[in-house]
């Protein structure tokens, strides 16, 4: 079996040098626990500067916790959360949003390119408004989406106006928020509170950390007692500085943006190489750092034999490739070469 080659996810990558450098600095001397340390204070201030906003900031270990606890804080157990049918909170969090909110229901809508639309929300709102059905309270969007597209500022503002109409709060799953900022050449403020986002879950892991996400409350009232919620859920890191310091490394060096720009550029490079190959069909516009492509099934098996790693959760023959801060053009060249060779050798003729 050849050595695995990693292009399956942005969390197969290692820690980026800037984050590692700050991690080592934070390890040079002891400090206070549970977020009372100097690193955490600096990282919170750094995030407030980045977002140009006096927001409330909390560090947690992973994205499932960030989303679930944020959603739990945004509504009551008898409320519901509107999201896209492909949303990570719906498909990949093992019911954690429902669990941590003590029973809030997720209501899903379809929408092209992995995106919620004002019409989709309107349809759900029109379906029920009686006491027997959990009342919608939150709209959750994923930026960039699960299929590698991005919501423009205008699209976010349109969702915000429907949300206003029905007094819904706006949550953003920002597992790839940095990639969206880079893709849209927009500032973090423009894509969040200036577009009416109440709470953002901003991922450091997929951007180049070992672990660590921040939950950012632009609507500060929603943050009341959130620290207790994190602690109860096992998400209060006692050595919080080892999450905060690498975050500060991303912020102070600008690596958060460079890493995202690089990953996006690599995805564009891969998509350009695939575009026009007979037998390869791009499934979504590659706007962020992932590329979805349909291949003939025999090609999938062949690529796996060669050691390539990838997910196929969009349809049976839809492949997802994800680029990270450390993806190289050389890796993509060898992937493209393997694909071209296989297609030339006729692997697509058995295409279904
Ligand atoms: C990766 C990811 C998360 C977070 O996942 P964890 O494994 O819990 O850290 C959340 N949302 C989306 C869209 C993701 O891709």
Automatic annotation (TrEMBL):
The record's listing under InterPro entries reads: ArAA_b-elim_lyase/Thr_aldolase, Low_specificity_L-TA_bact, PyrdxlP-dep_Trfase, PyrdxlP-dep_Trfase_major, PyrdxlP-dep_Trfase_small
Give EC number(s), comma-separated. Answer: 4.1.2.48
Organism expressing this protein natively: Modicisalibacter muralis
The superkingdom listed in its UniProt entry is Bacteria
In the record, the note on similarity to other proteins reads:
Belongs to the threonine aldolase family.
Q: Where is the Aromatic amino acid beta-eliminating lyase/threonine aldolase domain positioned along the sequence?
A: 8-293
What does this gene product do?
Catalyzes the cleavage of L-allo-threonine and L-threonine to glycine and acetaldehyde.
Gene3D superfamilies given in the database record: Aspartate Aminotransferase, domain 1, Type I PLP-dependent aspartate aminotransferase-like (Major domain)
Q: Which cofactor does it need?
A: pyridoxal 5'-phosphate
Its BP terms in the Gene Ontology are: L-threonine catabolic process
Upper classification of the organism: Bacteria, Pseudomonadati, Pseudomonadota, Gammaproteobacteria, Oceanospirillales
UniProt subunit comment: Homotetramer.
Reactions the enzyme catalyzes: L-threonine = acetaldehyde + glycine; L-allo-threonine = acetaldehyde + glycine
* Record-level Gene Ontology MF annotations: L-allo-threonine aldolase activity
Look up keyword Lyase and say if it applies: yes
This chain's protein is named: L-threonine aldolase
Entry annotated with the keyword Lyase? yes
Name the keywords, alphabetized.
Answer: Lyase, Pyridoxal phosphate
């Amino acid at each position: 079996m050849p050595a695995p080659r990693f292009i399956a996810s942005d969390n197969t990558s290692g820690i980026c040098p800037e984050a590692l450098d700050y991690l080592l600095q934070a390890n040079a001397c002891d400090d206070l626990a549970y977020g009372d340390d100097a690193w955490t204070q600096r990282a919170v201030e750094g995030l407030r500067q980045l977002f140009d906003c006096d927001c409330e900031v909390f560090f947690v270990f992973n994205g499932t916790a960030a989303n679930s606890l944020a959603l739990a804080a945004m509504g009551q157990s008898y409320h519901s959360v509107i999201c896209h049918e492909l949303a990570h909170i719906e498909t990949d969090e093992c019911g954690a949003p429902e669990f941590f909110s003590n029973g809030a229901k997720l209501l899903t809508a379809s929408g092209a390119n992995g995106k919620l639309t004002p019409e989709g929300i309107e349809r759900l709102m029109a379906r029920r408004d009686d006491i027997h059905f959990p009342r919608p309270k939150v709209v959750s969007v994923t930026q960039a989406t699960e299929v590698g597209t991005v919501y423009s500022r205008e699209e976010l503002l349109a969702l915000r106006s429907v949300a206003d109409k029905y007094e819904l709060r706006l949550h953003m799953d920002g597992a790839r928020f940095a990639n969206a900022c880079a893709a849209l050449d927009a500032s973090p403020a423009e894509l969040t509170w200036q577009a009416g986002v109440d709470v953002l879950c901003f991922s450091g892991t997929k951007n180049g950390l070992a672990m660590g996400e921040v939950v950012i409350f632009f609507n500060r009232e929603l943050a009341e007692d959130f620290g207790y919620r994190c602690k109860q859920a096992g998400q209060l890191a006692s050595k919080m500085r080892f999450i905060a310091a690498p975050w500060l490394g991303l912020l102070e060096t600008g690596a958060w943006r460079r890493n995202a720009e690089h990953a996006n550029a690599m995805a564009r490079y891969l998509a350009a190489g695939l575009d026009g190959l007979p037998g390869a069909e791009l499934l979504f516009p590659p706007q962020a750092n992932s590329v979805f492509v349909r291949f003939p099934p025999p090609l999938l098996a062949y690529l796996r034999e060669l050691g390539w790693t990838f997910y196929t959760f969009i349809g049976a023959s839809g492949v997802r490739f994800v680029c990270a801060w450390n993806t190289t053009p050389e890796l993509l060249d060898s992937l493209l070469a393997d694909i071209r060779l296989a297609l030339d050798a006729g692997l697509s003729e058995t295409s279904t």
